[in-house]
Structure formats: structure tokens, C-alpha cells
Amino acid sequence: xxxxxxxxxxxxxxxxxxxxxxxxxxxxxxxxxxxxxxxxxxxxxxxxxxxxxxxxxxxxxxxxxxxxxxxxxxxxxxxxxxxxxxxxxxxxxxxxxxxxxxxxxxxxxxxxxxxxxxxxxxxxxxxxxxxxxxxxxxxxxxxxxxxxxxxxxxxxxxxxxxxxxxxxxxxxxxxxxxxxxxxxxxxxxxxxxxxxxxxxxxxxxxxxxxxxxxxxxxxxxxxxxxxxxxxxxxxxxxxxxxxxxxxxxxxxxxxxxxxxxxxxxxxxxxxxxxxxxxxxxxxxxxxxxxxxxxxxx
Length: 297
Fold this sequence. Notes:
Elements: E1 4-10, H1 16-25, E2 29-32, H2 39-48, E3 56-60, H3 72-81, E4 87-92, H4 95-105, H5 118-135, E5 138-141, H6 147-158, E6 168-175, E7 186-189, H7 210-217, H8 220-242, E8 247-254, H9 260-275, E9 279-284, H10 287-296
Parallel strand pairs: 1-3, 1-4, 2-3, 4-5, 6-8, 6-9, 7-8
Helix pairs in contact: 1-6, 7-9, 8-9
């Protein structure tokens, strides 16, 4: 059974697309602009499915659905009668703000006929979907909101309330000789530590092997580094979230991305996983590359 099903709707140009992207970052399965006739079928598929990725669902609906949008009244009544739990989020903004946004982006309003002013299109849209605003469980007015504040409001309303993470954190090891990862938000250089490459019995192993890991982590400087790195990440992550960031890549590099960086990335991942504060991924970017070279040359 799904946890939440959110219908995301509102006035065109108010921020529905931004809301769907933010919800997707919060772990929601998002679908946009389904034909009205398929909405009930979609509900039934979600309810009857066992896909864990669809335990939180957001469905975008707007005026692009055309005249059939009025059919939503009966569909919502049927869903309520069937005790299918859902909630409606309505995104709104002042008319003058919507007009300005359309002029800035040079996009055409969905109801535009090319004959009238955009103000008239907005008025007709409000008339046609006013019933959705009346039924809404949450209404967010984005007139005076920065995008980061809009995303923060959505996080307050729709992030998991069970302590689940609001940011996805990737711990990546890499080799400087293969370049610094372009998507790294934080980069640490592990070349201050003794290099296992120069220990004959460790040379062909990697940081995934206990002898190398023990060698690297047995250094007092490695322990201090891990303490400080974990502390810095825990300090910065909430501040990144406040600015609307949902993905954070922490890269640890050594010469080849085989020994020191791998051992440190594994241990940093283990420590942060134990904190339970993050959704974590571990990526040893250059380990396969360096392994190939070591085995063939």
C-alpha cells in the first residue's frame, strides 16, 4: 500500500513543474498530465502494485487536460467513496506575477488562442479549475517565493515524517590521474597518507581488501581525517537542504583511486550510514580502471 498520493495542480506558470521535480527529489514517483480518463486506472495500478518505488506518488494535473477537466469532480468523488486516500496540492500565484513569468520565458499560455491578452487566458483558467482550489488540502502561493523557499515549503509538507533523509549523498573514490569528478560538490585529497602501492604485498590489492584497509585506517591521520570529514558533512548537509539541494557528491581522491581513497570512502560511508541521517550511495569510480592497468602492466 502506498504511503501518500498527491495530486499536484494549479494555475499555469505558478510552479507545478517545479513542485513535481521537488517531490521527485523527495522520493516520489511522479507522473504528469495523464488523460483524465486514466486517472482512476492509475490509482488502481498503484494500489495493486508491489513496486516500492511507487509507495509515494505525485500526479500532475492541469488545464492542458482540456474540457474533460470538469470530469475530475466525479472521479474524485468516486475515489473518496472507494476510500482511496489522496490529497490535493494547489499551486497559485497572483495574476500579475503569472503574466510577468510568461513574458520572461516567452512561453504561450495553454489556453491561448493568439487573439486575446494573456490576462484573459488566466481568467478563463481560474474559472475552469476553481473547483480544484476549493477541494485542495494545501494551497501554496508562489508570488513572492524564491525557488529555494518553495522547495523548502514542499519539504516541510511532503518529506517523510519518519526521519528519512531529505538529501541523497554519494561517497565517491577517484584517482587524480583520471581527473577530479566534474559533479563533485566536496573534494578531499587522500595523498597525505602513506601509499600501500609501495608495499609489495599490498600493491595488487585494493582498499576493499582488509589488509589494505587496515593499513590505511591504521594511520592516526586517517582517523582524524574521517572524524573531521564526517563532522563537516553533517554540518553542511542541512544547509544544502535549506538551499534546495537534494544531491550531494563527496569525492575522496588518491593517485590511482585504488587504495587510500577506496579505503577512506568505505569507512566514511560506514560512519554516515550508522548516523541514519542520509540516503547513501557508494561509488568507486576509478577502481575498475586502475585494477585493469595493475593487472596488465
